[in-house]
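Dear support,

We are seeing what looks like truncated structure output for some complexes. This example has two components. We would appreciate it if you could run it in full and send us the complete token output so we can diff it against ours.
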Amino acid sequence: MLKRDIVIVGGGPAGCAAAVAAFDAGTKDILVIERDESLGGILKQCIHNGFGLHRFGEELTGPEYADRYKNMVIERGIDYMVKTMVLSIEYGHDNTKIVTAMNSENGVFAIEAKAVILCMGCRERSRGQLNIPGDRPAGVYTAGTAQRFINIKGEMPGKNVVILGSGDIGLIMARRMTLEGANVKVVCELMPYSGGLNRNIVQCLNDFNIPLKLSHTIAKIHGKNRVEGVTIAKVDERLRVIPEESEYVECDTILLSCGLIPENELTKGAGISLDNVTKGAVVNQDRETEKDGVYACGNVLHVHDLVDYVSEESDIAGKAAAKYVQNGCRNADRIKTITVEKQGAVRYTVPQRIDVSENQEDVKVYFRVGAVLKDVSLVVRNGDQELMRIKKRKVAPGEMETVKIKGNMLIDSDRISISVE
Amino acid sequence: MTYDVVVVGAGVVGSLTARELTRYKLKVCLLESEADVAMGASRANSAIVHGGYDPVPGTLKAKLNVEGTVMMEGLCKELDVGYRKNGSMVVAFSDEQLEHVKMLKERGEKNGVKGLSVISGDEARKLEPQLSDTIVGALLCTSSGIVCPYNLAVAAAGNAMDNGADLKLNFRVTGISDDGDKYVVTSEKGEKVEARYIVNAAGLGSDAVAALLGDDKWHLTAKKGEYMLLDKADGKMVDRTIFQTPTKAGKGILVTPTVDGNLLTGPTSEKTEKGDKSTTLEGLDKIKSTAVLSVPKVDFRDVITSFSGLRASCDETDDFVIEQSEKSKRAVHAVGIDSPGLSASPAIAVYIVELLKKAGVKLERNEKFNPNRVSCSHFRHLSNEEKNEWIKKEPAYGRIICRCENVTEGEILAALRQNPKATTLDAVKRRTRAGMGRCQAGFCTPFTTGLIAQELGIEETKVTKFGEGSELLIGERK
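Here is the complete output from our reference environment:
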């Protein structure tokens, strides 16, 4: 059986960054396994710019950002396989992990790893999951599928387009389809606010006079063979369609950008429990799951707004996995574990728990809120005791928030909660 | 060329009949109006092999259901089609319903169904722990099962073709003339096929085809059944098929595992027009609110797709109409094949061939007939050692295209090359499961369309979802 110190499942931005970080932290026997034809992940089809402002201090396109990390992997001589699918992760003797994968060259094969980093990314919510009633014709795509057709294959899915969901991919695709000559008639958003970045609403919709209808959804799809139109309707506070406030919009194509779901089937198969909100693994500040030496980072852990934060998170996981391999066990100097509680508008936090050691470093907690709120304070407490308070002009579900909790505060705390007030 | 028998309609009934006919030295042609086989009632239904306790004793439905269900397991083995004898329960929520359940047991026994017993609510919950506390008793049937309905039709048509039958797709029958010795069957596009005998297995169109032969006494109504399919994570919620006791308000909503490991709930039942395959807000809401009565923990947040199917309900009778034509003696009709048509289909095929024999078809054994077929998705069932053997011979089996269902390029290529060849995205999906998983083809569509274009030698813009008019890429780049 093949043996490696670290196996990384997925060679997108998370997998590449984790590989580089682990290598630089001194554990060099790494294998990255990627299912697509090359490293880079979904970034390869994101040909717009706006990536890398935090990470590299400049605006890059998706493929450029992906290439930087791909080159870092190659420069270091880190081993990787493409066109290879990981089928399962199981546990062997002496705390090893058995990763079973398949490709054309080797067939079905197993690798014994000391540590595994899960970087499988996420998928888009489909029509079926959204339960959109109506006919079932051709021409209903997720925004990412349309993006792949246009940017990778050079094929246009349609001419007259209605987009449901104002997530970032939907907004980007509204602009992309318009630039390629399609007529994007309207973007409908179920919620009373957009789930996308503000800059994308300005640059992708406003600049092209594409209307954004908040609190609207597609109530019905029409068309026996190809999409012929949609009934769009306003929704009430409980997000139920108001039939009296609906209209028919003629179109031949529907793009769905209604949220991303971390792809955690392998994770579940490996017996790792997931967070109900993030749909990713429950992790500590090292991004270590409940299983020793199994880490998760990037969109498989929780859906990020910016790839820069994916890289940042993957650095943490890569470094921690390298240390785990070097020490042969998980953080031995742990003195206690604190659960991070979410309060009020805070929907989730990553990490969900903090393993505190005697020389505890500062821990950055990422979180998202469930509503658009103005003039608020982010408050960190230990039980009833207020530890930190940060004022914010505005928080929104589309943008990730962070707070950095000092190491000494953690040592002195029993219960950490984060709230928006 | 003049065929001995032309079969109109390539659903389960038509395809199995064509296969049954290739057991004999006959030239057989299967005509299908759509771009693939199994596009009507066989495409979308509950996928249940019923025990046979529902039909009224003495009816054709009762006889053929019980016979078909007995045949199904062996047939699916020969044809490499997904089947599992998982058993079923009809659950009762009141003493009144329990009386009905007891009546079903008696009826089933009269029909010759094996393995029926009435059990208490607690016994039912012991067998199926997720059943509701409100269930007071149930009819347990151990002889029923689940099957992959569209692949049964695909495999039957493919096996018939492997044994010499022809299949003509996109052939919508609009005219039939008879010179007393042979029929000339004409399509909407003007193509002609000649045959001495005709089998009318045209599903919802079988009343119209019968009328072309002068038999205009039947009228079919389309009854729509909507379904919701849940993620494989929920596939083990129940092991058996859970029916509710039929009431005046309706037949209730079933909850069942599928042979592929998903959980299926439905169907609704509403009259509609032929060709309407839409789902409705009301229908989906009804499924959600009714399914949880028997299995409260069904989690509809895990739905991966919803769909609907049409049943051909005959206005004139509740029974199947399978008989020699009155007006045109060399024709046999199968009209109004609604539930339990899938369960009965293996027996219907045999019954139709007997009727053809009576009508004058000479049945001389075809010694070369091979009843077996290997499915294009057979790879998924192999052991790792066997998989590696296959990958060595055909490296495409090592490349996964559909990540949710782990479908390989090799399986997709086999679906495009094996009888009956897939030519559309949905045809590939039904044969291989590529695109049937939780992402619903989000990732694999651009790969599959590329393979279809390459294999058919066409532009990718000509690839359709399910036939002409459903082109996937209709835009033009600036």
